[in-house]
Amino acid sequence: MTPSSPRRLATTTTDEQAQYHARLAGAAELYAESSWKIFPLVRGTKIPLKGSHGHLDATDNLEQIKKWWRDNPGANIGLALEANGLAALDIDRHVDQSGQVRDEFEVLARLEAELGPLPPCPTQTSGGDGQHRVFTVGRGLALKRHMAPDGVE
């Protein structure tokens, strides 16, 4: 759901950065128009803006969202999962603390081969070529933070 990776910004021109910022602001506005409650994050991170209350500030108020992205161009978009009745599956490839490569895509493929494929859902690219897959679970349903099997967040 994020337009492209923030890591690319280090080698882009000012014009390309402005286009990237405009795509982020446009995506934020689209979420609001879809009644999804969102909040701004520090550019290139999952950290709420300094002085904010993170997901507690999430809103679908278009004027507030336009102000946030006007005041913080390039801010990442935080999606308030529980407030929107959503859950996310975070799938990555990374090296764990023991030095072993963990490919959560392989784990997910094995699970889907055994249990059947996941339903179609909105998918965004996350930093490090991972994915966030977003599913509707219903408002008010409290999910445990880490319900996925080992190897998938």
Task: Note down, in words, how this protein is organized.
With 153 residues, the protein is an alpha+beta fold. The chain has three helices and seven strands, in the order H-E-H-E-E-E-E-H-E-E. It has helices at residues 14-33, 62-71, 104-115; strands at residues 38-41, 76-79, 86-91, 93-95, 101-103, 123-126, 130-136. The chain has a three-stranded antiparallel beta sheet with strand order 3-7-6, covered by helices on one side. It has a two-stranded antiparallel ribbon with strand order 1-2. A hairpin with a 3-residue loop joins strand 6 (123-126) and strand 7. Helix 1 runs antiparallel to helix 2. The longest helix has 20 residues, at 14-33. It is globular. It starts with 13 loop residues before the first helix and ends in a 17-residue tail after the last strand. Mean pLDDT is 85; it is low at 1-5.
Descriptors:
single chain; 153 residues; alpha+beta; two-stranded antiparallel ribbon; 7 strands; 27% helix; disordered N terminus
Quantity of strands, as a count: 7
Q: What is the number of helices?
A: 3
Helical coverage, percent range:
25-40%
Strand order in the sheet with the most strands: 3-7-6
**Low-pLDDT regions:** 1-5
H/E series: HEHEEEEHEE
Main sheet: strands, sense, barrel: 3 strands, antiparallel
Q: Report, as a whole number of angstroms, the end-to-end distance.
A: 18 Å
Taking all Cα atoms into account, the compactness measure Rg is 17 Å
Query: What spatial form do the alpha-carbon principal axes imply?
Result: globular
Average residue-wise pLDDT? 85
Strand portion = 15-25%
